Secreted protein (Pseudomonas brassicacearum), 87 residues
Amino acid sequence: MIRKYSMMALATLVVAVGVQSVSMTAYATEQGEQRREARDTRQTGRSDARQTKVDCRQASEKSNAQCRQDKRSTKQDTRRTARDIKY
C-alpha cells in the first residue's frame, strides 16, 4: 500500500519536472529568436546609418559634424527598435 502511494508520488514528480523542463526549453528558444531578430535589426541599422552619412556627404548640404550627428541618430533609433524587439 505504501509502495503504491510512493510510486504514484514519484510518477507525479517526474511528470511535473518534465513539463517544467519543456517549458524552460521553449522559453529559451523563443528568447534566442528574439535576440537574433534584434541583432539583425541592429546590423541593418548600421548599414543604413553608413548610407545616411554617405548620402549626406555627397549632397554637401551639411558639415561633416552634422552628417555624423545624422548617422548617430539613425543608429540610436535602430538600437531603440532592437531593444523593443528584445524585451
Summary: Residues 49-86 form one domain. Helices lie at 2-59, 64-86.
